């Protein structure tokens, strides 16, 4: 946690930083090409702890601070929905001590988000805990429901906390929901198609995912938002640093990159329309071959 | 086990349906379209786009401001509306940010291209399986199942059009055979490969004979899971073996089914749509009380999808400038390792072998 305090040594540093951040996020905001929905796989808290000789528990706590800083920048820049991978169903395989520590941390943070809730208040964030919550113990479920209840009327931004979650479970859950609705005679009009499956995901009704960020240089999804990420056009950023080292500066860079690429690809699309006739000729030609 | 039959039914039925030629309507991935596209997407066009964007920024500031006051979403900053001057100021800043990023990006792009060119010189298979073998022998582990996303480039480009796609795919097959990997999944969004499976068979045959000599061509099978069809080797040799032969020939077909590589062709159709189809089939079964919803487990879905699409690949190679999964079957990328080279736009051996290298070095810990 030294990283957080050491920045305040120079007088006025924090204020300047805040000012720069504000200006930057507002500039990005006018581009109208900021990702609407960002997913985070926050990988590397434990390795960070090991590297810095602190306890695993503290590593997770540092990770949480990083998360709140990153999310603040995102929301200020115009991201309306963020999804973070906090705990995988597979994580129950970890040592009971660590699982307990993570659960306690979650309980504490969920309470903090709701009670003090500077961020939830300031940005009007609706907190949603998504995943197979039936795997948690009853106390925690109560806390979660409480948190969701309190923030449910906030409508500027959404924060999805995936807790215990896997992407396959999400698809499976949505399939079952759809089947149940289909069989249930209460909704005779219900049709099963791509959008109905999409709507019944935990993230249903939220803007589609635009950007996925994974830290610690691992090139895998590890069962996170499989349905959403496999969609065409989702930008995937793999970053080669541990999550607690991932600062707002890097996030700003990624947002700028995204906005830049998106603005220009939107413009080049116009020019590409000229090529479409060519493609059509081709498509007709290839059909003849069959 | 009524489900199994049902899903087979589903396959056969859907094989008859007319596939729409998506190639005509497809839109390139937003990230890539700026920097790739080769000759067709020339530098002058990018400059055109850049200038237009900058000009647009200035020109439309006022118009935007007018429209903004009516639409609450774009210019509003947490309830506080941005003034005309303020918005103009931020626009200028944005353009400056874009210009500096653009300059950096240009340098980065040139650097990456140079790097790729050098890598291509270092790793050159030179049509010899022995060289590939040597490269692979150094690795501690190799993937059991390899997947690759290939794309059809515009017809005007070098290596573009159907020919280029077939050539790329068949070369990939050769490398995979030489590396000793038994399963290869070729994914292209529009299903062009599926539609041109006979051309692909021929192309693979001729490419393999370049690598192994015409008399030594390894046996291969091309599978299209969606229509449940298997093709063996090139079409000229054994037409009658296209679908399972029966009776006395069984032993012979068994012999023929021993292949060095199995190639599965997938497209967008095998992704979300297949999951939708499966849901529909199961829902119908539930509605007619042949199946209880509570009986549907993750394992059942998993085995169904494995049957319909195939198994999850261990490594996924992407030969484009920045990773875009393009609707690759979502169920099948749970723990798949991805590999691509930034700013690369060609199917090259260096990407292939470097992908295998990365895979050999990766540590897998499910949840731990």
Overview of the structural elements:
The complex is a heterodimer of chains A (290) and B (368). Chain A is 56% helix and 10% strand. Chain A has 290 residues and is of the alpha/beta class. Chain A has a six-stranded parallel beta sheet. Chain B has a domain at 111-238 and 257-361: 3-Layer(aba) Sandwich (Undecaprenyl pyrophosphate synthetase). The radius of gyration of chain B is 25 Å and the shape is globular. The two termini of chain B are 35 Å apart. The model of chain B is unreliable at 1-41, 58-79 and 239-248 (pLDDT under 50).
Q: Cα distance, first to last residue of chain A?
A: 64 Å
Strand order of the largest sheet of chain A: 3-4-2-1-5-6
How many DSSP E strands of chain B? 9
Count of β-strands of chain A:
6
CATH architecture type of the domain at 29-166 and 208-271 in chain A: 3-Layer(aba) Sandwich
Query: What overall form of chain A do the CA principal axes indicate?
Result: globular
Class from helix and strand fractions of chain A: alpha/beta
| Quaternary state of the chains | heterodimer
Mean pLDDT, all residues of chain B: 78
Which CATH-level-2 architecture of the domain at 111-238 and 257-361 in chain B? 3-Layer(aba) Sandwich
Mean pLDDT of chain A: 84
Number of H/I helices of chain A: 11
From the alpha carbons, calculate the radius of gyration of chain A and give it in angstroms: 21 Å
Query: Strand count, sense and closure of the main sheet of chain A?
Result: 6 strands, parallel
CATH superfamily of the domain at 111-238 and 257-361 in chain B: Decaprenyl diphosphate synthase-like
Biggest interface between chains: A-B, 78 and 86 residues
CATH fold topology of the domain at 111-238 and 257-361 in chain B: Undecaprenyl pyrophosphate synthetase
Please write the string of helix (H) and strand (E) elements of chain A.
Answer: HHEHHEHHEHEHHEHEH
């Amino acid at each position: 946690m030294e990283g957080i305090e050491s920045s305040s040594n120079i007088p006025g540093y924090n204020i300047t930083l805040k000012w720069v951040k504000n200006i930057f996020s507002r500039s990005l905001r006018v581009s109208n090409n900021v990702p609407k929905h960002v997913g985070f796989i926050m990988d590397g808290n434990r390795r960070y702890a090991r590297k810095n000789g602190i306890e695993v528990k503290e590593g997770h706590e540092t990770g949480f601070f990083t998360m709140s800083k990153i999310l603040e920048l995102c929301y200020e820049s115009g991201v309306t929905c963020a999804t973070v991978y906090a705990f995988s169903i597979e994580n129950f395989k970890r040592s009971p001590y660590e699982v307990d520590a993570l659960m306690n941390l979650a309980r504490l943070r969920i309470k903090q988000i709701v009670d003090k809730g500077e961020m939830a208040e300031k940005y009007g964030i609706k907190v949603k805990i998504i995943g197979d919550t039936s795997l948690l113990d009853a106390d925690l479920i109560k806390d979660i429901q409480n948190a969701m209840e309190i923030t449910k009327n906030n409508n500027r931004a959404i924060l999805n906390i995936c807790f215990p979650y896997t992407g396959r479970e999400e698809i499976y859950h949505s399939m079952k929901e759809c089947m149940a609705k289909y069989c249930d005679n209460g909704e005779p009009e219900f049709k099963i198609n791509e959008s109905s499956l999409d709507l019944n995901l935990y993230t249903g009704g939220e803007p589609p995912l635009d950007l996925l960020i994974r830290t610690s240089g691992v090139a895998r999804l590890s069962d996170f938002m499989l349905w959403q990420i496999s969609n065409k056009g989702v930008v995937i950023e793999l970053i080669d640093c541990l999550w607690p080292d991932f600062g707002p500066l890097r996030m700003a860079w990624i947002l700028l990159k995204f906005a830049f690429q998106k603005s220009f690809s939107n413009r080049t699309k116009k020019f590409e329309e000229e090529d479409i006739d060519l493609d059509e000729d081709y498509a007709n030609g290839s059909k003849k071959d069959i | 086990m009524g489900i199994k039959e049902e899903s087979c039914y589903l396959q056969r039925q859907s094989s008859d349906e007319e596939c729409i030629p998506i190639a005509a309507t497809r839109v390139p991935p937003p990230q890539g379209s700026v920097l790739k596209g080769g000759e067709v997407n020339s530098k002058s066009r990018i400059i055109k786009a850049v200038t237009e964007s900058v000009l647009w920024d200035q020109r439309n500031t006022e118009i935007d401001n007018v429209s903004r006051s009516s639409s609450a979403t774009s210019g509003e900053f947490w309830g506080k509306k941005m003034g005309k001057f303020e918005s103009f100021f931020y626009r200028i800043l944005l353009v400056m940010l874009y210009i500096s990023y653009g300059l950096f990006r240009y340098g980065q792009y040139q650097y990456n291209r140079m790097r790729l060119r050098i890598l291509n010189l270092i790793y050159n298979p030179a049509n010899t399986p022995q060289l590939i073998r040597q490269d692979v022998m150094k690795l501690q582990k190799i993937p059991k199942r390899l997947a690759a996303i290939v794309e059809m480039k515009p017809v005007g480009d070098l290596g573009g059009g159907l020919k280029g796609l077939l050539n790329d795919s068949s070369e990939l097959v050769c490398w995979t055979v030489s590396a000793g990997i038994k399963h290869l999944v070729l994914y292209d969004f529009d299903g062009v490969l599926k539609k041109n499976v006979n051309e692909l068979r021929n192309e693979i045959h001729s490419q393999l004979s370049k690598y192994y000599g015409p008399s030594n061509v390894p046996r291969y099978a091309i599978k299209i899971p969606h229509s449940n069809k298997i093709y063996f080797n090139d079409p000229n040799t054994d037409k009658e073996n296209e679908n399972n032969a029966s009776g006395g020939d069984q032993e012979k077909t068994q012999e023929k089914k021993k292949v060095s590589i199995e190639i599965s062709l997938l497209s967008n159709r095998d992704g979300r749509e297949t999951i939708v189809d499966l849901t529909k089939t199961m829902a119908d079964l539930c509605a007619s009380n042949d199946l209880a919803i509570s009986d549907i487990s993750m394992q059942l879905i998993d085995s169904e999808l494995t049957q319909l699409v195939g198994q999850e690949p261990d490594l996924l190679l992407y030969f484009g400038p920045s990773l875009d999964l393009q609707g690759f079957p979502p169920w099948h990328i749970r723990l798949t390792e991805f590999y691509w080279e930034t700013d690369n736009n060609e199917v090259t051996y260096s990407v292939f072998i470097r992908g295998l290298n990365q895979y050999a070095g990766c540590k897998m810990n499910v949840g731990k």
